[in-house]
């Protein structure tokens, strides 16, 4: 149970407070409702590049990191296809410093040319380090445009290529800030050794003077229903053949979302899971095998991927995956197997309550979904799932015509 | 009118409260340290075994035993072990490090009595089935094949081997080493290396007297010491700096890793050296980050650290930089190291680092698990909580002159082993 209080400032900024007196620390987490899906084709990777620029100084404060470190704080941020999330942890006694820093960069950035130039380079190096200079690093750069044809999920948060980042201009940066970084598009969560009254005063002092800005209305191209099987074969300088099969799955708020999550757990969570035991242990076809979901706000992906044991043909390996998928699409999972994945979900939920930052991030994310209170009833949605629901979802999902398969082959 | 150019007042962290564990042995003598704290009805139980019986001709046996320990016992198959643990929503993790092997159980406290017997079987009755070993060999070899294509992996591997040779800290593992694993060797190693005499149990979370009884009933009776465990002992002597260059003509980035033998946590200078390292490469605002990432844009990240091992300590610095700027990056790194030896750190920077480190320490004590981790950090080095008292004092009072002295004592570019994988 994650307790919270909630209020909204006159400029539209939503504020949630989670009081936890067991820690001497505080967290200030701010979620901006903007991600890579809000980018334009040809200017991809921008939401993430922008996240880097948010650390390049704001209108009244030349350095973001330095004053925070000086009061014993740390910070970081991440960008996904859906959201951009910034967080600070610091001794609770110094919480006002977090308000000061975070509100000033919501007010306006410094828009320094030097910062833009440096961060373009840094992000290009990040692109190389994580996507280009690693075996299998570019899988998602290939798989996304295969699985999506219209929706902006067809590019990864890092962007479609290095060139688009290298060409980002200051005017783009300014326009992006104006469009997305304002109180109406943000959710602020303050957690830890704080009290709601104090947070209210600090929020009024530092955030309320910021103009509400224009509300951004999202209007993304819908992904047409997939009607035919897709595949792509790439060869690269990697040691092992690999396969990635992506199926379309529900958006995060769809009632079936939790069913997909349990379905992936049955197939692939831990060493008692089906794919691990059947494909890796018994048939010895794969040295690694996984099933997971992308948890996207819009229509997401259910992915099965694996690296083949040397000498095993792709055809045999692929057939074996499909056999497992067909099995779960036709036969009901038994009670023990269902209880197992439910128990696992329950304990993961309890364990996540040990971490203050996790709690704050979760509150912000559920508030974005519609209501932070849903966080505390989420587990019930898992506990209510039946074997029939799992079979139905599996049989509607695991169809050839809904699949996109990437064959990632080792250079001969 | 709000003046946003003025920073709010702040306080340096003054009190840091460490929760110390209570301790009580099981009936067979295994020491148990209990950090009973937290709101959630869950517990983490770690069985930590000091590694022994190192054999440089069988460098993988300790790792493989750890990796295969939950793959079948005389009573349970691998699947039954996994099912039994997963059914109760518990997690069983095995972890090998050069000094210790840890088997960790995470569970809701209410299921303790149901999952601990599985863990007992794993720690006492594992048999390392031939079939499981074959799968392990094949799949680990495939994983290693992938790792060997990663520049940062190659840099780490070559660096460790250059510093530590063929000991548990530096063994140069190759694909063929997996072929040498034999079931009989693994079983013999298991019998020698998983005994009450080299085991410590650390418990964190919700854990009451009745839970201790459950633990003692299962692990404190039949499990007795036998012969065969031999403590590891390694000694190292620092060599002069050497350059190791592994050329990868297609590389977009070069992995750099450098460093040298240094001191570990048990040494009196360790806290002071931590402060120095923080200035150089220990946090986001460090000199290496400020120069090589934030000013030059050569890399996504660069950092340094002091690693503390049981029989050694070492300084390391690591990054991945654009292949075309590798030589420049190396020059800048050398410059930053030399600067710390020649000039004192400005007061403003030192104050910031002090405050940052104290805040960071406070923030690292988040829950029962992290308090237990702090205990392990001292216990296994023969230290007590005065270490943390001394650490906090050192951070608060160290001077710029002290730091320059530390730099001259412990940081020397010419004495470092420098590994570059990629292009120069």
State the low-pLDDT regions of chain A, or none: none
- Radius of gyration computed on alpha carbons of chain B: 24 Å
Largest sheet of chain B: 6 strands, mixed
Largest pleated sheet of chain A: 6 strands, mixed
Instruction: Please give the most extensive interface between any two protein chains, plus how many residues each contributes.
Output: A-B, 82 and 75 residues
* Helix-strand category of chain A: alpha+beta
The run of helices and strands of chain B is EEEHHEEHHHHHEHEEHHEEHHHHHE
Which radius of gyration of chain A do the C-alpha atoms yield? 23 Å
Q: What do we call the CATH homologous superfamily of the largest domain in chain B?
A: Metalloenzyme, LuxS/M16 peptidase-like
Q: Looking across the biggest beta sheet of chain B, what order are the strands in?
A: 1-2-6-3-5-4
Number of beta-strand segments of chain A: 11
The quaternary state of the protein chains shown equals heterodimer
CATH class of the largest domain in chain B: Alpha Beta
* CATH fold annotation of the largest domain in chain B: Cytochrome Bc1 Complex, Chain A, domain 1
User: Average pLDDT across residues of chain A?
Assistant: 96
